[in-house]
Amino acid sequence: AMPDAPSAHDILKLNDLGGYTVPTRGLYPFQWNWDAAITALGWMAAGDEARAWREVERLLEGQWDNGMVPHIVFHGDAETYFPGPEVWGVQRSPSTSAISQPPVLASVMKILFEEGRDRTLAEQKLAATLPAVIDYHLWFYRERDPEGTGRVCSYHPWESGMDNSPQWDGPLAGVPAVDAEYVRRDTGLVDPSERPHKYEYDRYIYLVKFFQQNDHDAKVLYRDCPYRVEDISLISILHRGTRDLVTLCEEDAASLDLVNAHGEALFSLKQSLARTEEGVQALWSEELGCFLSRDARANVLLEHVTTAGILPLFAGLPNDAQAKQMGGLVADWLAQAPYGVASTHPESTRFEPKRYWRGPSWLHINWMLAIGCEDHGLTQEAAQIKQASKDCIAAAGYWEYFNSVTGEGCGGRDFSWTAAMDLYWLN
Ligand code: DGY
Question: Measured from the CB, is residue 163 less than 6 Å from ligand 1?
Fold first, then answer.
């Protein structure tokens, strides 16, 4: 990073609001689900294992009775974010949003447990948090794949974490615009050319209101939500997380009697794994050489080459031939936009190198892709992705995401997950 710039550890401390870490001050002033998980890795790598587990515990304070871990936990008040708790209208304490986010949490907990030096702490914290995370995964399969297709769906582009990915353009067109005035905060804090358009926000907010009007009723939402997408990134991250949960229970933590205590849940999770291993093949595109998301309402595959479509590598879902094809795709992708794996393929007509999920590169995604490549014997591609990620930080420092063509830092500055990835993965 820059000579006089704050260190990665300084950034985590700057963003620490007391057991939870905001992604960045101003733009995201609460605790976000997948940010918290990634950030916990940074706390561990900085030598503070207790603080890493605290991040997990504080996120779980937001868990709903049905098992969902929400995408935002509103621990405090802040005027700088829209839509805040009053717009979501969730009557809980702490207040939360009403959707989830890719559950990378379980995979992170496996790392905290296995790599933690303080064994007493690791065993105690795992035992205290694992039951909640098992419930979280059961919730995903039960409510988001009630027909047992092996492909969970999302109800909002925010749930995918990849808000304005070209993948969602088609399904979002089926969502009405909200019929109310609102004031965005994000575009006052960062350059609007790095954020989604009003067109998208009108529909994002419509969906938020829709969930509330339907009392978050699982059956009603599955039937009536105007946006229902089998999201390949969500499917993949959930699958990897479930595998990691099963491993934690069966191998690493056998001494904690978790298998006995959660036998039935584990059986159900293993069935879900088997369903996804089969069901995901319906999302493979031989022509594009990657997996795709699917609009579950319109019943069409969303034919866009994005990082979501290669995340199945992280989950161990592709067969050998598919993995090989994706490896070739990654190499070609990096050759065209060298600063990390661009969230949308540079050859796409919808590629925009600095607009949020339409082209920039994101370090936590790069990390998952590098692990996925490594797992499938794509060692060279894994090393290339890691080097490209180092190049982003060297070029610009700890930004939210990076222009994949120039390496310029974009979005929020002094960003927790980028600092965490540097501490844990790149150092
Ligand atoms: C935002 O507000 O931009 C977030 O991505 C929503 O989670």
Answer: yes
Domain span holding position 29 = 8-426
Cβ neighbours of residue 188 under 8 Å, at least 6 residues apart? none
Residue from 155, 154, 185 nearest 30 by CA: 185
351 lines ligand 1 (CB under 6 A): no
> Any catalytic annotation for residue 163?
yes
The answer to the question of residue 311 being in a domain is yes
**Protein residue with least CA distance to atom 6, ligand 1:** 158
Torsion 310-315-321-323 (CA) sign: positive
How is residue 237 written in tokens? 């991250």
- Please tell me the predicted confidence (pLDDT) of residue 262: 84
Among 28, 185, 356, which is best to mutate for testing ligand 1, by the most ligand atoms less than 8 A from CB? 28
H/E segment holding residue 291: strand 290-291
pTM, to two decimals: 0.97
Is 98 inside any structural domain?
A: yes
CATH code at position 393 = 1.50.10.10
Question: How many domains in the chain?
Answer: 1
Start-end of H helices in 70-118? 85-88, 105-115
> What digits encode the pLDDT tens for the residues 84-142?
999 999 999 999 999 999 999 999 999 999 999 999 999 999 999 999 999 999 999 99
The residues that bridge with 300 in the sheet, in sequence order, are 295
ipTM here:
0.90
316 falls within a domain = yes
Domain-embedded: residue 268: yes
Our answer on whether the CB atom of 151 is closer than 6 Å to any ligand 1 atom is no
